[in-house]
Amino acid sequence: MSLKNILLYVDDSKHCKARFAVAAQLAAAHEAKLTAVYVLAPPYIPTYMAAQLSAEVIEAQAKFARQAAEQAESNFNDWSKTAGMSAEWRVSEGLADDVIVTHGRYSDLIVMGQADPAESEMFYGAGDVVAQVILDSGRPVLVVPYAGHFETVGRNVLVAWNASREAARAVNDALPLLEKADKVTVMNVNPDKGAASDGDVPGADISLHLARHGVKAEASTSYASDIDIGDTLLSRAADLGSDLIVMGGYGRSRFRELVMGGASRHLLQHMTVPVLMSH
Q1: pLDDT given at position 228
Q2: Please, are residues 133 and 110 in contact by the beta-carbon 8 Å criterion?
Q3: Pick from 16, 135, 138, 142: most CB atoms within 10 A?
Q4: pLDDT of 200-252, one tens digit each?
Q5: Both 138 and 22 in a single domain?
Q6: Distance between CA 91 and CA 99 in Å, rounded?
Q7: What does 144-192 look like in DSSP terms, one character per residue?
Q8: What is the number of structural domains in the chain?
């Protein structure tokens, strides 16, 4: 298996270049077509101010948005030229999550960036966009941390496994990466031993499945009562030197994760390496 179409979400974030580098690296490794999409969002006008704003003000906002899109395209072309690759550029009007989901359904992988709290005012709701794309696109989403540069992605992979539908989907979606990896560790945190869904030895069945795809995976189990699953995964990834985490996203409702917390939300907020999520 291989990736043939990669969609990269480009915005005005200062971290976008690092996100491009990850997408370009994967496109080169898989001989895939890289397509970038920039969302030209409608001007944000609060309802209570709509009647007070003149047509000139609204047009000025639209002009600023078009200029930002042109600058983003220029940056993208420069990055592509430096990387020595040909890539497609698209601009689409609408809400970010709707646009990315629409374009993403015609790709093998969607590459997005983790929301940076320091840019929260500029990119309001950026974290919500990532979560919504994971939930709605039907495609794996690779989320790149806002901090750091990642020279390798997918050579040393940590797979978070709990025998759920979402985890099975994520492993299958990640196969093109896992098949090229030098090392794959399948980790089950606080498994229910003997559960029908995961057999007598947690992680053994999925490791065998991966072996039949030529993936040499090592099953690992961790028991943690003093820290949550998200922190356990990040700690283990650091110990192993992993450059990618693969996991199912939002195994329970997003509302419950917002209220009670959850591994998906925790990873999206605190990731230290790229994370591939599927729902």
Answers
A1: 82
A2: yes
A3: 142
A4: 778 899 999 999 999 999 998 888 765 688 999 999 999 999 999 999 998 76
A5: yes
A6: 10
A7: EPSSS--S-SSSEEEEE--S-HHHHHHHHHTHHHHTT-SEEEEEEES--
A8: 2
CATH number of residue 265's parent domain: 3.40.50.620
State the DSSP H helix or E strand holding residue 38, giving kind and residue range, or none if neither.
strand 33-40
User: Dihedrals φ, ψ of 270, to 5°?
Assistant: -125, 15
- Same domain membership, residue 174 and residue 258: yes
State the DSSP code for 77. Answer: H
d(CA 125, CA 68): 19
- pTM reported for the whole predicted model: 0.90
Q: Which residues of the chain have pLDDT under 50?
A: 124, 259-260
Q: Are 170 and 278 in contact (CB under 8 A)?
A: yes
Question: Domain span at residue 134?
Answer: 5-144
Pull the structure tokens for residue 15: 């971290």
What whole-number distance in Å separates Cα of residue 49 and Cα of residue 71?
29
Considering the domain architecture, whether residues 173 and 247 belong to the same structural domain is answered as yes
